[in-house]
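Q: what sequence does this backbone want?
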């Protein structure tokens, strides 16, 4: 049992005896015995002198008793002078053991055994106080750094109990430090992360856009007990950027090759149409004409398709300016004509964004929501509805588009270019919305509704660090203009 609390490794402790004597008498008892031994010859001498001078026995007894009392008094004074400095130094050492560094021994001076000891103990107290202050400052710095990290940080003991949790981990895993610490990874649903190897890549479902985390694992000892430290790095954005660059390179190559073929195909089709001879049978002429028309239309459609993807991959950086969220959403809602988009009023606020890009992203999401609500798979297409709402919480503005369509069936491919479930879709709407949101340091999330209504909810999350109340901002602008 005791071995569990001992450090696994450390220097061997050597105990140096204070004295060579192995007697069981304490230090103070030995001093008293020595003092009485030193006083015994004087007592014997006094008795012999009184006896030799034939002093009365009663007087002799009184004088000897006085001698004994005087010697006891002198012994107590000597004992006080010896033991009091030692008791003071003991109190100082005890205070150091209790992490109290406010006590110091007085009367410390060189060329004196007790003084030298006091000087050394005071120097030890100063050194321990300095080290303690440095350790506290280092711990405070580490805690502040860990708490300020955007990456989740966790530590587990050998039994798998959570011992450390930073703010980012609280937010990602929905935990609270006060209630999570001391629980096992199994109880907290963190088994996959606690059991992951170093540099493992794990996927955590955060809705329609799963997050991908790289695990960095290392070990450390706390009070001699081995612990495991886990740092999770969100590599979703980096992987998506690599994916986007890969698609960009692919589209550049495909676009070059296809364009080289489309141009002569369109030209030859047009030339053949102009060279059709009047003597050809009417039925054959109609077939030729229809075939050439198909070739021209499909060539033009394929060309538009490639141009759309080129535009997607060449999306410029946003030009930020104040944008009033309410007005932007009202404009987007009015652009959808197939059904009435309901706008749920929220807090009036202004964000820094590229209005054109953000509007295009919202148009794509509203178009998808409308097509889902009116689609053949919708359970209640007769009462199709799409609504837009927004809110500002914890430094973030979230714009939500809700529909009552069939919901999501395969969320893993939503943000993959070229992927679409619609016959006439191009597969760039959600990808474009995602890129625009990420260009604004935000994100797009899609998930099935959880409010009891069948359908999907699309959320555009944007940072509100520059968000302001719209009415004061408008008042300031009016004052400046005037």
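A:
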């Amino acid at each position: 049992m005791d071995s569990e609390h001992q450090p696994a490794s450390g220097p061997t402790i050597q105990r140096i005896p204070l004295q060579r004597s192995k007697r069981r008498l304490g230090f103070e008892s030995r001093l008293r015995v020595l003092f009485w031994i030193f006083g015994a010859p004087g007592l014997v001498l006094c008795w012999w002198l009184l006896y030799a001078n034939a002093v009365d026995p009663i007087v002799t007894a009184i004088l000897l008793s006085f001698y004994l009392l005087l010697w006891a008094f002198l012994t107590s004074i000597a004992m006080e002078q010896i033991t009091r400095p030692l008791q003071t130094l003991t109190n100082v050492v005890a205070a150091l053991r209790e992490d109290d560094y406010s006590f110091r021994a007085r009367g410390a001076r060189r060329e004196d055994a007790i003084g030298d000891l006091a000087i050394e103990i005071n120097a030890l107290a100063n050194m321990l106080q300095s080290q303690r202050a440095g350790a506290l400052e280092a711990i405070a710095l580490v805690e502040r750094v860990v708490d300020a990290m955007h990456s989740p940080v966790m530590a587990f003991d050998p039994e798998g109990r959570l011992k450390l949790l930073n703010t980012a981990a609280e937010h990602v895993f929905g935990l609270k430090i006060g209630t999570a610490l001391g629980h096992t990874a199994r109880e907290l649903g963190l088994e996959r992360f606690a059991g992951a190897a170093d540099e493992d890549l794990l996927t955590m479902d955060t809705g329609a856009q799963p997050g991908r985390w790289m695990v960095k694992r290392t070990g450390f000892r706390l009070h001699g007990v081995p612990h495991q430290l886990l740092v999770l790095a969100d590599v979703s954005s980096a992987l998506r950027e690599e994916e986007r660059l890969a698609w960009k390179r692919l589209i550049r190559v495909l676009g070059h090759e296809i364009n080289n073929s489309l141009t002569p195909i369109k030209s030859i089709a047009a030339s053949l149409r102009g060279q059709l001879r009047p003597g050809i049978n009417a039925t054959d002429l109609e077939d030729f004409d229809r075939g050439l028309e198909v070739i021209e239309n499909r060539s033009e459609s394929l060309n538009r398709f490639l141009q759309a993807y080129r535009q997607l991959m060449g999306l410029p950086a946003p030009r930020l300016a104040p944008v009033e969220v309410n007005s932007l959403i009202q404009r987007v809602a009015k652009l959808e004509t197939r059904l009435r988009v309901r706008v749920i009023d929220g807090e009036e606020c202004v964000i820094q964004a590229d209005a054109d890009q953000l509007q295009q992203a919202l148009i794509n999401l509203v178009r998808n929501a409308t097509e889902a609500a009116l689609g053949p798979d919708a359970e209640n297409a007769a009462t199709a509805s799409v609504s837009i709402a927004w809110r500002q919480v914890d430094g973030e503005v979230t714009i939500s588009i809700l529909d009552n369509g069939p919901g999501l069936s395969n969320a893993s491919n939503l943000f993959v270019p070229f992927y679409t479930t619609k016959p006439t879709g191009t597969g760039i709407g959600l990808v474009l919305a995602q890129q625009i949101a990420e260009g604004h340091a935000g994100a797009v999330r899609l998930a099935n509704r959880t409010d009891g209504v069948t359908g999907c909810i699309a959320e555009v999350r944007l940072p509100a660090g520059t968000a302001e109340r719209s009415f004061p901002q408008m008042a300031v602008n009016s004052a400046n203009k005037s």
